[in-house]
Amino acid sequence: MRNGAILPLRLSDVSFTAGGRTIIDGISLEIEAGPSTIIVGANGAGKSVLMRLMHGLLDPSSGRVEWHAREHRGAPRKQAMVFQRPVMLRRSAQSNVAYALKVAGIPKAQREPMVRESLDGVGLAHLARRPARVLSGGEQQRLALARAWALHPEVLFLDEPTASLDPTATREIETVIRAFDAAGTKIVMATHNLGQARRLGDEILFLDRGRLIERAPVEQFFSKPQSAQAAAFIKGELPWT
Amino acid sequence: MSEALGTALKLLADLDPKLVEIVLLSLRVSLSAVAISALLGFPLGAAIAVGRFPGRKTLIVFLNAFMGLPPVVVGLIVYLLLSRAGPLGGLGILFTPSAMVIAQTLLILPIIAALSRQAIEDAWREYEEQLRSLGAGRASAAFTLLWDTRFSLLTTVLAGFGRAAAEVGAVIIVGGNIDGVTRVMTTTIALETSKGDLPLALGLGVILIAIVVAVNAAATLTKDLAQRRYG
Amino acid sequence: MDLIRRLLLLAALAAALPALAQEKFIVVASTTSTEQSGLFGHILPAFQKKTGIQVRVVALGTGQALDLARRGDADVVFVHARSAEEKFLAEGHGVKRFPVMYNDFVLIGPKADPAKIAGGKDILGALKKIKAASAPFVSRGDKSGTHIAELDLWKLAGIDIAKEKGPWYKDTGQGMGPALNTASAMNGYILADRGTWISFKNRGELAIAVEGDKRLFNQYGVMLVNPAKHPNVKKDLGQAFVDWTISPEGQKAIAEYKIGGEQLFFPNAGAPGA
């Protein structure tokens, strides 16, 4: 049919240096299907870079990033990413979603129902014809999710998706993410909102200065952090969540 | 100066057929040159904007520099190419409006390519991650960005049109300023100046400026309306 | 977006297609002073009416006009510099030279007349006085027929102008109109063809100082560019034009051209030694 199942994803001793600085320092891990994975860490810990290495936007300076099956050019992607700030083309909301389908090679006739379904799924059907760029921040982020959802990806990466949004919009986004998760999409999300991590996550990956310090189921991480850095991090961050 | 304005208004009021012919030819030549330059220049600018290849920076420097090509030089080069004694003489298009279109196209192609490259490179910076995440290849992304930056590109087109409509050096050499055949506004102004009929020359100048302003106004209005719609 | 692209393409194609019907035409290389005198505007419609041939005049300086023909970019030359024309023929670029008409030069000068030559009939004497007085003199300096005539007159007056000129002699490299503008602006003397002078509107303090000297007569010649050397030349159409200008009909048309009631050009086809 299309590409084969791409999970699990394996990182083998992956490092990333840029401008003389080592941003990711020898990380090895495996991402499996199923539980939603939340990546937390202080600013500059390397969360965003790690996400981009996994998604393929960056190539590692050393080490390997290997998916279970290779994706083929021209076939619809099995992974999608939502960024902190949504990037929309200067066209209508539905055109933006249709564009993603077009890039994926979905023939024109099939696109319309898929676009409608995605917009319905995030509650934006009434804004379908509106120019995407005049929507509010929260609406645009929902649109980004709809765009990602349209292709039913196996993995959805989210890089601090609610960092720029107010609490109401944040709640709306979290609802959509939970729906993705329930539908079987693997969620890999970076956030510095620890409350959000607790709400949405099944497991936590804790990064500090480019290294993977701790990996644990969510409740265990917050109640009984194994590493000194994690403990300090939780203590320090908690007042702000 | 007021005599020039008076002359200009009288010319317009009379709607002298010779004047109309000259204005129409000017528009035809410059608009054609702009259309062809856009057709060639936009993809070129987009390709340079999103492409990565050796010598790219040098190419950009040259492209930007060529925005200031002296029209006389371009005219001379095109003349030597199209002259019977030149490599393309067999085409027999010297001293025709086609030659003028070619010369003006060469003149404004760098402007369109360089400015569109800048616009699309700026857009690429904003869109690159998202487009690559969706799986778009560079070529496909370039075309997507061309449409997305269409408002900036309209300004680029206007810049090109302004340059073409205002120049005289290129069209006078390759066109020959032939009465009724290749005489345009700028070459007519040059002719009347050299004949000493300064009020007429100024009057024509006022008309030329008015036309360019009108074109700009219409395009800017369209752009503003559309921009408000699309954000 | 597709639609817009298609429209743009159509526009480009439509513009590139020559709007001119594929009519018969020839390119005649002539001089700026002839074109600006308005002569062509008067006689060419008559020719086109008779033969259906459109004449496209490219007006340059005499030197440039002949060079244009040397490159094969014109079918006929119609200029007024006999020595340059003979050279052109000798090089094999022209078929035969026919005298067509003449007009005359006039020496223009400021009404203040620093060289004290106004009203004279001796051009050579006038030039000598201008040099003696170091009065400002504007030269076209552009290889044109007028320029060549001016240089010939200095030589006849016994002055090696290239060596003997001073800051009073302004070598401008301009066409007749711009040179007259310059003379008007600086109140200088200048040799001009009568036709351009009559049409010239920016006179300032200038007026005719010397005229009527036989040495000021300016002979025009017409030549078909040699098809043997330039195969693209429209031989038959070009020859038709040459023949017409020296025919009684063409000569009459030339004589009938007047500015302000004054005849500018005097037909003399067939005149011996012209």
How are the SSEs placed, and which strands pair?
The complex is a heterotrimer of chains A (241), B (231) and C (274).
Chain A: E1 9-18, E2 21-31, E3 37-41, H1 47-55, E4 62-66, E5 79-82, H2 93-103, H3 108-121, H4 137-149, E6 155-159, H5 167-182, E7 186-190, H6 194-200, E8 203-208, E9 211-217, H7 218-223, H8 228-237
Parallel strand pairs in A: 3-7, 3-8, 5-6, 6-7
Antiparallel strand pairs in A: 1-2, 1-4, 8-9
Chain B: H1 2-14, H2 17-50, H3 56-66, H4 71-82, H5 97-134, H6 138-148, H7 150-166, H8 169-175, H9 185-194, H10 198-230
Helix pairs in contact in B: 1-10, 2-5, 2-6, 2-7, 3-5, 4-5, 4-8, 5-6, 5-7, 5-8, 7-10, 9-10
Chain C: H1 2-16, E1 25-31, H2 32-37, H3 39-51, E2 54-60, H4 62-70, E3 76-79, H5 82-90, E4 94-110, H6 123-133, E5 137-139, H7 145-156, H8 161-164, E6 169-171, H9 176-186, E7 189-193, H10 194-199, E8 206-210, E9 217-225, H11 235-246, H12 248-256, E10 258-259, E11 262-263, E12 266-267
Task: Provide an overview of this structure.
The complex is a heterotrimer of chains A (241), B (231) and C (274). Chain A is of the alpha/beta class and 241 residues long. Chain A has a single domain (9-240), classed as Rossmann fold. Helices cover 36% and strands 24% of the residues of chain A. Chain A contains eight helices and nine strands. In chain A, the strands form two sheets. A six-stranded mixed sheet of chain A has the order 5-6-7-3-8-9, with helices on both faces. In chain A, a hairpin with a 2-residue loop joins strand 8 and strand 9 (211-217). In chain A, helix 3 packs across helix 4 (137-149). The N and C termini of chain A lie far apart (44 Å). The relative contact order of chain A is 0.18. The model of chain A has no long low-confidence stretch (mean pLDDT 91). By secondary structure, chain B is mainly alpha-helical. Chain B has a single domain (2-226), classed as MetI-like fold. Chain B is built from ten helices and no strands. Chain B has helices at 2-14, 17-50, 56-66, 71-82, 97-134, 138-148, 150-166, 169-175, 185-194, 198-230. Chain B is globular and about 65 Å long. The model of chain C has no long low-confidence stretch (mean pLDDT 89). Chain C has two domains: 2-103 and 219-267, D-Maltodextrin-Binding Protein, domain 2, CATH 3.40.190; 104-216, D-Maltodextrin-Binding Protein, domain 2. In chain C, strands 1, 2, 3, 4, 5, 6, 7, 8, 9 and 12 form a ten-stranded mixed sheet that branches. With 274 residues, chain C is of the alpha/beta class. Chain C is built from twelve helices and twelve strands. The radius of gyration of chain C is 21 Å and the shape is globular. The interface between B and C is large, with 33 and 39 residues.
